[in-house]
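Internal tracking record. Fields below are filled automatically when a chain is submitted to the structure queue. Please do not edit lines marked as system-generated. If the sequence contains nonstandard residues, flag them in the REMARKS field before resubmitting.
Queue: standard
Priority: normal
Entity type: single polypeptide chain
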Amino acid sequence: MAKSLQNIRKIAALTVALLAISLGVNAQTWYIMGEYIWSPPHPQGTFEETHYQAENVEIGGMEYHTIYIQGEGTLLGAYRNEDNQVYYCKWNGSSYDEEVMLYDYDLEEGDFFNDSDEHPMQVTEVSTITDNNGVSRKKITFQFIGLEDETEYWIEGVGSSKGFINSGNYTPTSDGAIFHLLCYHVGENLIYVNPVYNSCDIDDIEENGFENSVSIYPNPANEVIKILNDNNLSISGIEIIDLMGRTIMNVENCDEINVSDLAEGQYFVKIYGESNIVKKLFISK
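SYSTEM-GENERATED OUTPUT FOLLOWS
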């Protein structure tokens, strides 16, 4: 089964590469991890999607780039750039919806985005990251107003930490899915990798024997967490990462970790072993 999944992914990657060649070297591809958090209709667990830029289309006299789901060939919508803003028209199955602003990379600390929504986002930090090609890119970090644990960040020219078309998406979709950007390509050139996952390959984080054998207790926690390893599998290291993608703690070969100094909120625990997995950790004081 694992080999079959790997073969499918290789075929999908080849298809994306051939698509990029057919569309030109600037074809853009976003690799997304989805996570079902309730059921039905889907079981809890992770899945992957590839969103890619395809042919251009004219809407209202302006040119847009279409976005599809790889494999399904499902049209998601179309976007266009204007100066430092990105605008998006969602495809509703028969036509494009009215254009909305997806990104405004001119925002600065204290500014709001989607301020007409019930839970607008406010910029809490503006910084700079260096992408995989050594290019400096603006990073804008947001806090959702009224939702203490909900944050998001944008990388200029890449998109949201929740996926390119999921900017401002603070709630699960109708089928209980939330999304995380794994990485972003232009043609065959890897531009950005999400530091929480450090991989473009869902094999590193999907449910498998290692995933099912390792858990965190207690969760939520406030003092000490234990890494429960039911099958005594090899664990080489553990990182605790905050919602901004920063490594807060880094330990080796430890089954108990003191987290009393961590602020209340949500974190990711990345566990390195037979494969790399990511667990959510909640700190409650």
